[in-house]
Design goal:
Number of domains: 1
Strand content: 35-45%
Structural class: mainly beta
Mean pLDDT: 92
Distance between the termini: 17 Å
Helix content: under 10%
CATH class: Mainly Beta
């Protein structure tokens, strides 16, 4: 989970690097959509799996300034999540309850399908965070 630092208004936060990719929207019964906007902004709950991103970096931009890059290594998907007010209130371990205004979760993964391994095979992957403050 990434706090958007001094910003107290998630509506000033955008995620870049997702344009033109398909995503599974878990807030809409896991329907698949294609991202047409160059940025993802937050004005309600977001729970998406962006599939097979062509580039390896997704960036968090706050008030027009790049703040953090999430760099994938051998992982094809990126999850973006913010529960919004109703979701935060429904989670017993989400605190403070208005914390959704200051956070966004951006994480790499192999979410949209299994990675199969045969006996003696190995799989290595990871993610790195690059601060741009």
């Amino acid at each position: 989970m990434t706090d958007t630092c001094s910003n107290q208004d998630i509506s000033q936060t955008k995620i870049t690097g997702l344009a033109g990719t398909s995503y599974i929207d878990k807030t809409q019964n896991a329907k698949v959509f294609t991202s047409t906007s160059p940025d993802l902004s937050f004005f309600g709950p977001v729970d998406r799996v962006y599939r097979s991103l062509p580039q390896d970096t997704t960036s968090i931009v706050v008030a027009g300034r790049p703040r953090l890059d999430v760099v994938r290594d051998n992982l094809r998907d990126t999850v973006v999540w913010n529960p919004w007010k109703e979701g935060a209130e429904a989670m017993g371990d989400f605190a403070p309850k208005d914390g959704y205004k200051r956070m966004v979760c951006v994480e790499s993964g192999a979410v949209d399908g299994w990675i199969g391994l045969e006996a003696q095979d190995a799989f290595e992957a990871g993610q790195a965070f690059r601060a741009r403050i």
